[in-house]
Design a protein that fits this description.
Blueprint (H helix, E strand, L loop, with lengths): L1 E8 L6 E5 L6 H4 L2 E5 L12 E10 L5 E5 L5 H5 L5 E3 L22 E3 L5 E10 L4 E7 L2 E6 L5 E5 L4 E4 L2 H4 L4
Parallel strand pairs: 7-12
Antiparallel strand pairs: 1-2, 1-6, 2-5, 3-4, 3-6, 4-5, 7-8, 8-9, 9-10, 11-12
Length: about 170
Amino acid sequence: MEIGVVTRPQGLRGEMRVHLHNPESTALDELETVLVRRPAAAGGAPADPLKLGIEGARSTPDGTWIVAFAGVVTRDDAESLRGATVSARRADLPGPDEGELYVEDLVGLEAVDPDGRTLGVVREVYDNGAQEVLVVAAAGGDVDVPFVDAHVGDVDLEQRRLVILDLAALVPEP
Protein backbone atom coordinates (compact mmCIF):
# COMPACT_ATOMS: atom_id res chain seq x y z
CA MET A 1 0.00 0.00 0.00
CA GLU A 2 1.55 3.29 -1.08
CA ILE A 3 1.99 5.70 1.81
CA GLY A 4 4.21 8.44 0.37
CA VAL A 5 6.83 9.69 -2.05
CA VAL A 6 10.53 10.51 -1.70
CA THR A 7 10.82 14.19 -2.60
CA ARG A 8 14.54 14.95 -2.29
CA PRO A 9 17.79 14.23 -0.42
CA GLN A 10 18.36 15.87 2.95
CA GLY A 11 21.97 16.60 3.81
CA LEU A 12 25.03 14.58 2.87
CA ARG A 13 24.55 11.33 4.82
CA GLY A 14 21.86 9.66 2.70
CA GLU A 15 18.81 10.96 4.53
CA MET A 16 15.86 11.98 2.40
CA ARG A 17 12.60 13.86 2.67
CA VAL A 18 9.44 11.82 2.34
CA HIS A 19 6.00 13.33 1.77
CA LEU A 20 3.30 11.08 3.24
CA HIS A 21 -0.06 11.02 1.48
CA ASN A 22 -1.71 11.41 4.87
CA PRO A 23 0.01 14.38 6.52
CA GLU A 24 -1.27 13.30 9.94
CA SER A 25 0.22 9.81 9.68
CA THR A 26 2.97 8.67 12.00
CA ALA A 27 3.50 5.39 10.09
CA LEU A 28 7.21 6.03 9.55
CA ASP A 29 7.67 6.09 13.35
CA GLU A 30 6.06 2.67 13.61
CA LEU A 31 7.37 0.74 10.60
CA GLU A 32 10.59 -1.27 10.54
CA THR A 33 10.75 -1.75 6.76
CA VAL A 34 9.12 -0.30 3.67
CA LEU A 35 9.15 -1.01 -0.05
CA VAL A 36 10.65 1.78 -2.14
CA ARG A 37 10.01 1.76 -5.89
CA ARG A 38 12.00 4.03 -8.16
CA PRO A 39 10.04 5.72 -10.95
CA ALA A 40 10.13 3.96 -14.30
CA ALA A 41 12.48 5.38 -16.92
CA ALA A 42 10.74 7.03 -19.87
CA GLY A 43 8.95 4.26 -21.74
CA GLY A 44 10.43 1.61 -19.46
CA ALA A 45 8.90 -0.89 -17.10
CA PRO A 46 8.58 -0.01 -13.42
CA ALA A 47 11.62 -0.94 -11.36
CA ASP A 48 11.43 -3.74 -8.82
CA PRO A 49 10.82 -2.41 -5.31
CA LEU A 50 13.64 -2.28 -2.78
CA LYS A 51 12.89 -3.53 0.73
CA LEU A 52 14.60 -0.99 2.97
CA GLY A 53 14.87 -0.89 6.74
CA ILE A 54 14.08 2.38 8.47
CA GLU A 55 17.01 3.42 10.68
CA GLY A 56 15.47 6.71 11.72
CA ALA A 57 12.53 8.94 10.91
CA ARG A 58 11.47 12.32 12.22
CA SER A 59 8.69 14.66 11.23
CA THR A 60 9.34 18.27 10.27
CA PRO A 61 7.25 21.40 10.86
CA ASP A 62 6.33 21.52 7.14
CA GLY A 63 4.70 18.06 7.35
CA THR A 64 7.36 16.06 5.54
CA TRP A 65 9.54 13.40 7.15
CA ILE A 66 13.30 13.07 7.15
CA VAL A 67 14.10 9.39 6.83
CA ALA A 68 17.31 7.37 7.05
CA PHE A 69 17.05 4.05 5.21
CA ALA A 70 19.48 1.17 5.77
CA GLY A 71 22.04 1.05 2.97
CA VAL A 72 21.38 4.60 1.76
CA VAL A 73 24.48 6.35 3.06
CA THR A 74 25.39 9.13 0.63
CA ARG A 75 23.60 12.04 -0.95
CA ASP A 76 24.00 10.32 -4.33
CA ASP A 77 22.29 7.19 -2.93
CA ALA A 78 19.42 9.35 -1.72
CA GLU A 79 19.27 11.29 -5.00
CA SER A 80 18.80 8.01 -6.88
CA LEU A 81 15.54 7.53 -4.96
CA ARG A 82 14.08 10.96 -5.74
CA GLY A 83 10.47 10.49 -6.89
CA ALA A 84 10.29 6.90 -5.62
CA THR A 85 7.09 5.71 -4.00
CA VAL A 86 7.16 4.41 -0.44
CA SER A 87 4.84 1.53 0.39
CA ALA A 88 4.10 -0.65 3.39
CA ARG A 89 2.26 -3.89 3.82
CA ARG A 90 -1.26 -3.14 4.99
CA ALA A 91 -0.83 -5.65 7.82
CA ASP A 92 2.08 -3.52 9.13
CA LEU A 93 -0.03 -0.36 9.29
CA PRO A 94 -2.46 0.53 12.05
CA GLY A 95 -6.11 0.15 11.15
CA PRO A 96 -7.99 3.32 10.26
CA ASP A 97 -9.75 5.11 13.10
CA GLU A 98 -13.53 5.48 13.25
CA GLY A 99 -14.71 7.55 10.29
CA GLU A 100 -11.39 7.08 8.43
CA LEU A 101 -10.42 4.82 5.57
CA TYR A 102 -7.47 3.91 3.43
CA VAL A 103 -7.54 5.65 0.06
CA GLU A 104 -6.82 2.37 -1.72
CA ASP A 105 -10.18 1.08 -0.41
CA LEU A 106 -11.94 3.55 -2.71
CA VAL A 107 -10.67 1.93 -5.91
CA GLY A 108 -13.34 -0.33 -7.38
CA LEU A 109 -16.24 1.27 -5.53
CA GLU A 110 -19.41 1.86 -7.51
CA ALA A 111 -20.11 5.60 -7.84
CA VAL A 112 -23.79 6.45 -7.58
CA ASP A 113 -25.81 9.68 -7.61
CA PRO A 114 -27.84 10.74 -4.54
CA ASP A 115 -30.81 8.74 -5.90
CA GLY A 116 -28.73 5.56 -6.15
CA ARG A 117 -28.32 5.52 -9.96
CA THR A 118 -24.98 4.13 -11.11
CA LEU A 119 -22.60 6.75 -12.50
CA GLY A 120 -19.51 4.60 -12.90
CA VAL A 121 -16.69 2.98 -10.96
CA VAL A 122 -13.74 4.52 -9.12
CA ARG A 123 -10.83 3.46 -11.34
CA GLU A 124 -8.00 5.27 -9.57
CA VAL A 125 -7.20 7.73 -6.78
CA TYR A 126 -4.39 10.27 -6.93
CA ASP A 127 -3.19 13.17 -4.82
CA ASN A 128 -3.13 16.54 -6.63
CA GLY A 129 -1.32 18.28 -3.79
CA ALA A 130 -4.47 19.80 -2.33
CA GLN A 131 -6.60 16.67 -1.85
CA GLU A 132 -7.18 13.17 -3.08
CA VAL A 133 -8.96 12.96 -6.44
CA LEU A 134 -11.14 10.04 -7.53
CA VAL A 135 -11.00 9.05 -11.19
CA VAL A 136 -14.50 7.78 -11.96
CA ALA A 137 -14.88 5.71 -15.12
CA ALA A 138 -18.28 7.05 -16.22
CA ALA A 139 -20.29 6.38 -19.39
CA GLY A 140 -18.89 9.48 -21.13
CA GLY A 141 -15.29 8.84 -20.06
CA ASP A 142 -13.18 9.42 -16.97
CA VAL A 143 -14.21 12.21 -14.61
CA ASP A 144 -11.93 13.58 -11.88
CA VAL A 145 -13.85 14.05 -8.63
CA PRO A 146 -12.12 15.87 -5.74
CA PHE A 147 -12.55 13.74 -2.61
CA VAL A 148 -14.08 16.56 -0.56
CA ASP A 149 -17.46 16.93 1.14
CA ALA A 150 -18.73 19.27 -1.59
CA HIS A 151 -18.50 16.47 -4.19
CA VAL A 152 -18.54 13.15 -2.33
CA GLY A 153 -21.29 12.13 0.04
CA ASP A 154 -21.61 8.83 1.88
CA VAL A 155 -18.88 6.21 1.44
CA ASP A 156 -20.06 2.69 2.24
CA LEU A 157 -17.17 0.23 2.10
CA GLU A 158 -19.37 -2.73 3.05
CA GLN A 159 -21.73 -2.08 0.13
CA ARG A 160 -18.74 -1.09 -2.07
CA ARG A 161 -20.30 2.22 -3.16
CA LEU A 162 -19.99 5.95 -2.70
CA VAL A 163 -22.24 8.88 -3.54
CA ILE A 164 -21.12 11.56 -5.98
CA LEU A 165 -23.25 14.60 -5.25
CA ASP A 166 -23.20 16.27 -8.70
CA LEU A 167 -21.12 14.48 -11.33
CA ALA A 168 -22.50 16.67 -14.15
CA ALA A 169 -20.98 19.77 -12.53
CA LEU A 170 -17.54 18.16 -12.75
CA VAL A 171 -17.71 17.22 -16.44
CA PRO A 172 -16.05 19.83 -18.65
CA GLU A 173 -18.31 21.38 -21.26
CA PRO A 174 -17.45 20.52 -24.89
